[in-house]
Design a protein that fits this description.
- The N and C termini lie far apart (65 Å).
- 48% of the residues lie in helices and 7% in strands.
- It is mostly helical and 111 residues long.
- 0% of the residues are buried.
C-alpha cells in the first residue's frame, strides 16, 4: 500500500488527481474501478528508473465536500488549523518575552 506522500499520518491511499504524476494520471483516468494497469515506467526522485503497476481501488467524482466522502480530509484540515493556531499563539507569547529580554540586555550593554 502506498500512502499519500504529502501526509502519511492521514493513513489514506486517496490521492487527489492534481497531486498525481501526469503519467500516472493518464493511466488512472482511463481505468475502471477494480482494474490493474499494465506496467508504467517512472523515474523516482533519485533518478532511478522503474515500473509501477497500478490498482484503482475507488474513484470519487468531483463533488462538494461532505463528511461521508471527505471525513479524512476535513479531519486533517482541522488538525492542521489547530496546530497552526497553537503555534501562532505560542510565537506571540514568546515574542513578547524575547523582546523584553533583549531590551534588558540592550539597557545593560548601553550603561
Amino acid at each position: 500500500m502506498i500512502l499519500y506522500a504529502d501526509n502519511v499520518t492521514a493513513r489514506t491511499t486517496f490521492i487527489p488527481a492534481d497531486k498525481l504524476d501526469p503519467k500516472v494520471f493518464i493511466v488512472v483516468d482511463t481505468m475502471k474501478v477494480g482494474e490493474i494497469s499494465q506496467p508504467v515506467a517512472f523515474t523516482d526522485p533519485d533518478g532511478k528508473q522503474g515500473y509501477k503497476i497500478l490498482y484503482l481501488k475507488s474513484k470519487i467524482p468531483p463533488h462538494k465536500g461532505n463528511l461521508d466522502q471527505d471525513y479524512a480530509k476535513f479531519k486533517e484540515k482541522a488538525q492542521q488549523n489547530k496546530i497552526d493556531r497553537m503555534l501562532s499563539e505560542w510565537f506571540e507569547k514568546e515574542e513578547k518575552t524575547l523582546i523584553s529580554g533583549l531590551m534588558k540586555i540592550m539597557i545593560l550593554v548601553m550603561n
